[in-house]
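Hi there. Long-time user, first ticket. I'm pasting a complex I've been working with (about 1040 residues overall). I'd like to know whether the download I got is complete or cut off, because the file seemed smaller than I expected. Thanks.
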Amino acid sequence: MKKITLFLFLLLNAAFAKAQDSCSTSVGIAAGIHTVEAVDGTEIPTPICAANGTGATHGKWFKYTPSQQYSVIISTDYEINTDKDTRVHIYTGTCGNLTCWAGDDDNGIIGNGYLSIAQFDVMAGTTYYIAFDDRWNASGFEFQLIENPYVAPVIAFIPTTIPTSSSICAVVDMNGDFLDDIVTTGTNQMTVLYQHLDNSPFTQSAYPLPDLTAAPSWSIAAGDYDKNGYNDLVFGSGNRLAVIKANPTGTGYTEIAYPQNIFTQRTNFIDVDNDGNLDLFACHDVAQSHVYRNTGSGDLLFDIAMFPTLAVGGNYASIWTDYNNDGHADMYMAKCRGGAVEGDPQRINLLYENNGDGTYTEVGADAGVNDGAQSWSTAIEDFDNDGDMDFIVSNISDQNRFYKNNGDGTFTDIYSTTGIDAQVGSWEIQSGDFNNDGFVDFLWQNNKELYLNNGDLTFTGYDLPFSEGGIGDLNNDGFLDVQFDNQVFLNVPNANNWIKVGLQGTTSNINGIGARVELFYANGQQIREIRSGNGFSHQSSFNASFGIGTATTIDKIVVKWPSGLVDEFLNPAVNTFLKVTEGTALSVNQNDKTVDFNVYPNPARDTINFELDNNKTTITDAFITDMNGKIVLNPTSVQNTIDIHSLSKGSYILILKDANKKIFKHKIVRLVVG
Amino acid sequence: MKQKYLYLTLFIMVLCACSRNKDEQYTPIPPTPFQINLADVPYAKLSDYHFFKGDLKTLTPTDTVLPYKPASELFADYAHKKRFVWMPKNVKATYDGDDNVLDFPVSTFFIKTFFYDNVLPSNTTKLIETRVLVRKPDGWKFYDYIWNEDQTEAILDTDGQGKNVPVTWMENDIQKSVNYKIPAQTECATCHKLNPTGNKELSIPIGPKPQNLNFDYSYGATTMNQLEKWVAMGFLDSSTPDKTAIKSVVDWTDTSKSLELRARSYIDINCAHCHRLGAHCDYVPQRFNFSNTNLGTFGICLTPSAQLGNNPFIINAGNADQSMVVYRMSSTAESEMMPIIGRRLVHQEGLQLIKDYINSLPRTCR
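Hi, the file is complete. Here it is re-exported in full:
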């Protein structure tokens, strides 16, 4: 009897051993400790779900079907396995048609560090295949499957595939409906994938660009520089840039080529001289950056004298921002130059303060942001929601910087207290409020790709399957998505509320580039700036995206235009899109309360007088606009009296700017006595 | 019989002597490189230098203009190159390390012509550009001469914005095409610069280093080690270490040499002008110079500072398909490819060499 029992036992054991040798004969397991005698099964686990590629010749297979949702750990990282070397793959799907779900090679810390720990979520009723391989070693070991309570991920993105591809990305409205579209490029052509309301599939249009002199191989930016209602683009390559101009209906594009050599880095459409027309700025890697002046009649002319910068190279990323809150866009330049010594101007970051008169002054040293490390890119946002813009500089050498704006024209580096990992090396850094909690987060290419803002000037890092791309709302659900290569990573919404604001300029440039959008609500205040060309290479949405967390109302949205006009919306609807056309909701009589401002007579017939009391300041600009924000009277010299004979009767806005760059507005009325 | 030949020889000698005297009465000998006025350089045309004689496009050197070649060449979209060096009498270059460009005297010229053979439709040779590097008193200067369609002259590029020249040719029975890029003036210093002391960026040549010149070159009638030839010509100081003492690269196409030597040589000439201390990309950790004996900083199992694709190491030993160098050498996307400028095509043969080399290494990267 005993002999037969033993024989049967051995037979069963042999059968048991064979049963782990392939996917189809894998053994079902539950949570607990399991023994692998040796990795000697014939079916090699494929595809490979862990690092270090091919080389395995055997596998060992198990399957696992949880009865409910769990956060699962599979680990060999135990003392009993010291000196062993394991690798594990976890699949969904069916044998012969498996898809990687998780995997690990060397997450373990015991001994030589070659043991494995894989952590992943599982869904109830789904079968997961667990396979070890002998990529490194076939010796047996013990492993444990641990079921922990499921914790919903803090943030998640679902990868979807698009029919075309670009790694220099533009996610921006191309047909004037304020929905973000996707631009991809190919040889002598570009394709636009148009988003539609109601989540119907993107439609696709290909536009030929014959004999294109510059592909967007280093950067892309958008802006409607000829104000025909359709965004134009600029392609930046290693030796040329090209402007891609939309026809009047947005149904065709023409290349405007330029003969000047430029090793293009970041480009921006930006109104350098604040004349209401977008000019073009282009960083040059190895020489002085280029500037192209908008003539006002649909042309951009190469004209470095329009905004002269240092006549040296190393110019990597120009980000336009009003860092001193004076209503004018300044510019921060991240600089990098290999082989240059510390202190070389080719690698010292610069801050160009806009003087408001078409000139700029470089103040980087005074401001404390003249970092001399090798910088490729900067994220500029009001990260602490205190009303001014802070800079996160992503460096390739030395250390990164978190320049917190002190509100007085200077900055303090607080990087060491932010909780952001010290790793350098990311050439791209981009920002947005990805979880709509009211605090702006950032995205880069270091180990933790996404840093969520904890709301207290600290950040927590998370792994993502992507690290850069065009950022916008690609399914119109109020949550920021990211396009890179042929994928769109759709942000899985949470319960937070939001609002998107899209601008249409009239006196200012039509995109509102350089405008500031402010949101006021129960939790405080947030700022967004509208930018063409943000980060190192991509173009993201022109819409300002705000999260408001669990708040359900917004007190007001204020839009401060480059023209000086201010529009204000009280109590806008949440979880929707708000379009703001310049001058349609002017906030009048918003004056600095510390300075008395008199306008008289009002209504007036011939002349209007104004004065600021107490000699606290002097007026540098005075002009009058109609109620749509269009300038109707712009005296060439500033007196305290303006002749308004030329105005027809009606209501206007008198706008004054003082030497401290403050703005005063007063509604006036012209009477015509018959 | 002997006497007859003696008379004949004497007769010929007298004839020749007479002819020489006769010549001196006629047109003076055209100016030679010895008469280059550095202050007037750059000349408007390549022929103005008189580096070459006869039909200019044959690039037949005059006088002491000396051809040379580095053991392994930088890939330039399959363009061939003819290189020459010249310096005045009584000045010499001196040795500054096996892996550094020789210290050349003022008035040294390098003349390097890029061309294609078997250019379609007529299977002709097409000269594209001749780059002239000259050491002036205030440093090395770079000039580019662009060949005309007739191939009779190369004209100084005063535009400096770079130029595309489409070429279609037969490369070993395979038709290839490229939009060949003549560089813009500002691009020269991206590669042709070094900051050796940490104090100042200097413009430099790249190829003429002892490690690259240390092999036998055929000078027509004679074959000689190039370093020894340069010493014999008076171009190089004789205190230069002996050829056996110089750690030298090999010709990467020489299959009799080890994969490692061939790959290290290829990588040095294609990558180390930026990826070495003091060069354009020295702020990332890999050091690709041949003289770097540290395999870790050379790149084996080195984590790249920027992640692209699924390539956890610069050189993933034993795993070429997941090595960053292979990814970047295979790319033609401007923001990803390596070298970063200077090519538009993938060098298939060089790529294969690097893959073979990486796959020959034991898998040690974790």
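A couple of notes from our side: The first strand of chain A starts at residue 27 and ends at 28. Confidence is low (pLDDT under 50) at residues 13-17 of chain A.
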